[in-house]
Amino acid sequence: AVMRALLTAGATVDLESPGACTALTFAAWGRADASVDILIEAGAVLDKRREHQNTPLLDAAESGAAGCVKRLLAAGADVESQNQQGHTALILATGLGRLAAVRAILEHGGVNVNHQSFRGNSALLHGAWRGQTECVDALLKAGALVDVQDDDGDTAISAAAFQGHIKVVEKLLEYDAAIDLPTMDGRTCLHLAAGRGKELVVAALVAHGANLDAKSDIGTPLAWAARQGELRCVEMLIEAGANLEEANDGGFTALMSACFFKHEEVARFLLARGAKVGTRNNRGDTCLTLSAGRSIMCLRAVLEAGAPPDS
């Protein structure tokens, strides 16, 4: 009643506050459905941009105001409007798990579910990174492309694998996501999960036939897990058949990585499984020389395994 009275008395419907916010901006962000109706009826500019180039629709989507989203879209708000990062309402709602808003946008239609922001971020990738399983499911059902890559070469499943979001990974696997598609630096989903100790994800990827010996700049998933000291993932990869001696472009094996980064437990496990102590990398270093001066425990482990003291 107060708002109608003010408008009837001549209040400017699109008067801006600092930051270029209008009444519609505040109503949309505040999930005030009735106020949004009144302001639309009064002729408020639907796609008025405030700072960061957000429109009322973007604000409503970000705050999870599904009712406001529906009203703004029905009145003609641009479903493809973007903020200064290139994010649409669909991307913002998905990343924050605003499922009702996501569904409202998808049901309205006319939205590009595969739109990518200025860094190549899509709604699916954003949702996967944040672990928003239900939103990811809604996007996939709406036809989102499962293997879209961002500027770093990440896909939805590589993002979910890195974060350890097993439910998202499982959902993407249902849609045949490419698990061996490398990022710009050559890492696959298995590299990303193993290097961060995401055991459930590693198990799922291995079960789906991930390439155990895929090579990136830092070597195989086994080498990356060894470098990071992720013992359980090292065990899982070896049990699955990963090559102990596969080296990266610099000649580093998994054992060398474990020794250089002072992960004694990993080094001892690799040695127990038959890793070679006498292998040299491209600079002529062995596990012994890499351990010397860095880890007395790793040094002791390779000596006990039979490394020649003068190697």
TrEMBL record:
SMART domains: ANK (SM00248). Keywords: ANK repeat, Repeat. Gene3D superfamilies: Ankyrin repeat-containing domain. ANK repeats lie at residues 52-84, 119-151, 152-184, 185-217, 217-249, 250-282. The keyword Cell wall biogenesis/degradation does not apply. InterPro entries: Ankyrin_rpt (IPR002110), Ankyrin_rpt-contain_sf (IPR036770). The keyword Repeat applies. Signal peptide: none annotated. It holds the Pfam family Ank. It comes from the Eukaryota. PANTHER family: ANKYRIN REPEAT CONTAINING (PTHR24173), ANKYRIN REPEAT DOMAIN-CONTAINING PROTEIN 16 (PTHR24173:SF74). This is Uncharacterized protein. It comes from Prasinoderma singulare. The lineage of its organism: Eukaryota, Viridiplantae, Prasinodermophyta, Prasinodermophyceae, Prasinodermales.
